Amino acid sequence: MSYEILQADSGCPGEPTPNLEDYEQFRAAFDWDQARQQLARLPAGGLNIAHAAIDRWVLAGCGDRVAMRFIRRDWERRNFSYAELGRQSARFANVLAGLGLAAGDRVFTLAGRIPELYFTLLGTLKFGAVYCPLFSAFGPEPVRARLDIGGGRVLVTTLSLYRRKVLPIRPQLPELEHVLLTDARGADLPEGTRSFAELMATADDAWRIPPTDPESLALLHFTSGTTGKPKGAMHAHEAVVAHYATGRYALDLHPGDVYWCTADPGWVTGISYGAIAPLANGVTIIVDEEEFDAERWYRILAEERVNVWYTAPTAIRMLMKQGKELAATHHYDRLRHLASVGEPLNPEGVIWGQAVFGRPFHDTWWQTETGAIMIANFRSLDVRAGAMGRPVPGIEAAIVSVQRDPDGNPVAAEVVTTPDEQGELALRPGWPSMFRGYLGDEARYQRCFADGWYLSGDMAKRDADGWFWFVGRADDVIKSSGHLISPFEVESALLEHPAVAEAGVVGLPDPVAGAVVKAFVELKPGHEGSEELARQLIGFARKRLGAALAPRSIAFSDRLPRTRSGKIMRRLLRARELGLPEGDTSTLETNG
């Protein structure tokens, strides 16, 4: 296996040493109780995410520390201290009590990056209800499906989103009793809605969090399968133990850091690592109301003196597409650690980080179901460009060969011990943030396990030194003429070409080979698709991968289909190419 190694961060003068200095030694001694003991327990007993993230810092005398810096589209900034977030979340807990909610009821948000979303998240958890975020880009049907499956009683949203996406389907949601609008009052309120601000203004800003069983349901995150209805992954308050520990050791967060996670709060990363993990580690989070804009992002990194930055490979490639010159207009003297999430990071992105910021991006791997980072490239370890990294302390990971019955249910999982042999990535259950089930679908939950392993559905391999490497989703891997071909590997090779901005690779049926590789390519500005360029790209890929793995054909696209979290939807490319049903497209970036 060939890869580029980027040296571990030795640190600059004045920078804190990595929280995890010696990976092997720390991993050997670690157990989850160590992390639990570092989180203050509730005065009333138990463990509550909001208390661990906010109130414990106030009780420790750190209430004046800035918890959240909100940046409006017009660049107006507003700071919220830990004490202020504590008061605002207490107000919302009292609002829920006034609405007659009970512990375990579901509270949804449909909003972008606005302060009210974070008040709702923390206040819901303080109250003992279950918080569920929705993408603001969802259309009416995806909103309806998730509110219906989740049994949402309260929805916090904006006037515009309500009119466009909720009002048309509200008659189909008999359980939705309360809609609170963040930007409307009085006569501006549509019938059947109430003002979030007016309710908050009259609510008490003190709330005593009741005793909270760590196993009590806290978060409901929806994830879409290839077909069928969305699945609601359930997470308990105990998840905060993993949020805290992975924020500290995988993202290297230190109290007082300025931290920016660019993920949309409508999906799991925007909640777990956009809010809970950083606040549990006592940092200042940046919340930018605006969507992606390369020049704006560079300005935020520089002016806000960001220490730790967590973003998506798609965003990294979009920055790469703009060229290095734009990045060079600012200085990033406080930027200590760069990490990526959401999909595998191609080696080019890792190396680009080193060239532009003087530090490589550190990829991380996890899923909605795992609730927290499971495998990471740590600040204290060399980065092997293109690798997922090594397991987080407390996590046992393996590559397994899975046997399934005729219906596709797993019946056995055997650990693969040969280095670099492909198999399914599996984790030993028992970590704090592991999902506790799919809401209303126990059978589907049980199909995720075999022989004492959680089966991730991701194909990977483990090298002789213990680094894991992503191959593809189990249903994405292409078998052609006896070769198992990783779409990610082919995409990474194509991305090395100077004309290619994005690539999506699928396997298409072939009567001789079983399947052949086709690549869909999005070009950088200044390049146009042509038969000549297609031939060049195929030849380029053959030189890097060999004829057996290289694409047989290339199609050019102005915009590849991707989810709001940035993942290219390979199965949608394949369905459209073959005229097959597209399945669940509710998370498509263009929806809404």
Walk me through what this model shows.
The chain contains 18 helices and 30 strands. Strands 3-2-12-11-13-14-15-16-18 form a nine-stranded mixed beta sheet. Strands 19, 20, 21, 23, 24 and 25 form a six-stranded antiparallel beta sheet that branches. Strands 5-4-6-7-8 form a five-stranded parallel beta sheet, with helices on both faces. Helix 3 packs across helix 4, helix 3 runs parallel beside helix 10 and helix 4 (82-98) packs across helix 5 (115-127). The model has no long low-confidence stretch (mean pLDDT 92).
What structural class do the secondary elements suggest? Answer: alpha/beta
Percentage of residues assigned to helices? 25-40%
Mean pLDDT: 92
SS elements, strand count: 30
Radius of gyration over C-alpha positions, nearest whole angstrom? 24 Å
Which descriptors apply to this entry?
six-stranded antiparallel sheet, alpha/beta, nine-stranded mixed sheet, 30 strands, 592 residues
SSE order and pairing:
Layout: E1 5-6, H1 23-29, H2 32-38, H3 49-59, E2 66-71, E3 77-81, H4 82-98, E4 106-110, H5 115-127, E5 130-134, H6 140-150, E6 152-157, H7 159-166, E7 178-181, E8 194-195, H8 196-201, E9 217-223, E10 231-236, H9 239-249, E11 258-261, H10 268-280, E12 284-288, H11 294-303, E13 308-311, H12 313-322, H13 324-327, E14 337-340, H14 347-357, E15 361-365, E16 375-376, E17 383-384, E18 390-391, E19 397-404, E20 410-415, E21 423-427, E22 437-438, H15 442-446, E23 449-450, E24 453-462, E25 468-473, E26 478-480, E27 483-485, H16 487-495, E28 500-510, E29 514-523, H17 531-545, E30 553-556, H18 570-578
Parallel strand pairs: 2-12, 4-5, 4-6, 6-7, 7-8, 11-12, 11-13, 13-14, 14-15, 29-30
Antiparallel strand pairs: 1-17, 2-3, 9-10, 10-22, 15-16, 16-18, 19-20, 19-21, 21-24, 23-24, 24-25, 26-27, 28-29
